[in-house]
Write a sequence for this structure.
């Protein structure tokens, strides 16, 4: 084992510690784990609790992300793999479940020749469906210092220098044990950050039933998918793209946090607003922006921009327009003294992106005053609003990444 292996792990630890968002961190952890040992593919699972009849709480492994270099090479540049989202029991039926159950690392040289005495088995149907053959695997738990299980990583098909599949070695096991210990510390911090944000969302949900954790996670996920494709089209450097997508993912979740300052009479009204009520409702953008007025970080800055501008329209007809969020004093007015709306690129990129993400999710979701729209109705409405409510380029990008957006929907289904 070379000392450069440990140096690269230390560098990875430093880089991962800068990531704020839990989902983006999980994706990065999987990618770096694969890179450390030269795995062609892999998946990462997190531990979730699911309630069943009679109030029984069951822990399962939720499939979060998968990566596969062989499959990725067959896709057009900038496109991502589409995969199914599911959960598996923590038991001895699967290798990932057994790893979670026993909290031990499992190294299988050949999945098609697992000893009959092994307590776990391999479901060959996944290979038949995907057309990708799983041979060698290394599955290991993500454990906190006090032994709590956060998740499981399964790496698939270690490749040698000639791209032949070989078994994972004892050195690989040692390296990944060290990697997992440090990754788990970073994960715990991200869980705390996500928990704090969801508590803020829960405050909003107590006031406005539409503001659920699933809704804000979907909007944030859509926003990142749109931004990533925009950034690649505009040739944004990798480091800058990675940094902003992290900031955008966290900040987008707080887009409607200003609703906590709106009266329940308006928020919980089971129907459409009167013009006077709608005018009051528009102030949630100012209230939300004012929460981030004391800017200390990039997240504060972008969260302020999104809260303030995600209801602005590309043609300048949105709200709140050019208004100081602290004093509510208009900053720009027309000849009649009416506040001017922001338009075009006067609206920050993050606000323009979240505008599309928020409207798409609202149209797809059930509300007290409406049923979910049909998918074709929703997509037609997004197309129709191009050039008026939404930036045309971002609408085009939205349709480019629609498969990824649909996958994000499946990751965060509506809460029952």
């Amino acid at each position: 084992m070379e000392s450069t292996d440990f140096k690269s792990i230390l560098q990875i630890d430093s880089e991962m510690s800068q990531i704020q968002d839990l989902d983006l961190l999980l994706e990065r952890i999987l990618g770096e784990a694969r890179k450390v040992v030269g795995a062609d593919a892999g998946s990462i699972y997190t531990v979730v609790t699911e309630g069943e009849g009679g109030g029984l709480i069951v822990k399962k492994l939720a499939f979060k992300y998968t990566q596969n270099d062989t499959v990725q090479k067959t896709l057009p540049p900038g496109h991502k793999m589409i995969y199914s989202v599911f959960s598996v029991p923590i038991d001895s039926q699967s290798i990932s479940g057994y790893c979670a159950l026993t909290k031990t690392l499992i190294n299988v040289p050949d999945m098609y020749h697992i000893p009959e005495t092994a307590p776990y088995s391999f479901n060959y149907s996944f290979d038949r469906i995907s057309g990708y053959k799983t041979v060698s695997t290394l599955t290991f738990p993500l454990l906190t210092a006090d032994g709590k299980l956060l998740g499981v990583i399964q790496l698939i098909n270690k490749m040698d220098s000639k791209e032949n599949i070989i078994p994972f070695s004892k050195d690989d096991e040692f390296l990944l044990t060290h990697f997992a210990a440090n990754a788990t510390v970073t994960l715990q911090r991200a869980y705390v950050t996500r928990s704090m944000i969801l508590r803020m969302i829960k405050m909003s949900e107590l006031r406005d039933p539409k503001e659920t954790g699933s809704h804000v996670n979907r909007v944030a996920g859509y926003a990142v998918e749109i931004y990533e494709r925009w950034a690649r089209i505009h040739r944004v450097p990798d480091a800058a793209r990675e940094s902003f997508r992290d900031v955008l993912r966290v900040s987008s979740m707080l887009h409607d946090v200003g609703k906590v300052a709106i009266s329940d009479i308006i928020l919980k009204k089971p129907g459409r607003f009167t013009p006077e009520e709608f005018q009051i409702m528009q102030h949630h953008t100012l209230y939300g922006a004012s929460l981030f007025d004391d800017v200390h970080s990039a997240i504060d800055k972008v969260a302020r921009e999104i809260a303030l501008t995600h209801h602005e329209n590309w043609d300048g007809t949105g709200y709140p327009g050019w208004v100081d969020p602290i004093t509510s004093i208009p900053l720009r007015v027309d000849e009649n003294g009416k506040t001017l709306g922001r338009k075009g690129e006067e609206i920050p990129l993050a606000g323009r992106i979240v505008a599309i993400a928020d409207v798409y999710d609202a149209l797809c979701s059930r509300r007290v005053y409406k049923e979910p729209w049909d998918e074709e109705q929703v997509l037609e409405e997004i197309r129709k609003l191009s050039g008026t409510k939404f930036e045309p380029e971002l609408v085009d990008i939205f349709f480019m990444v629609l498969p990824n957006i649909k996958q994000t929907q499946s990751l965060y289904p509506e809460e029952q």
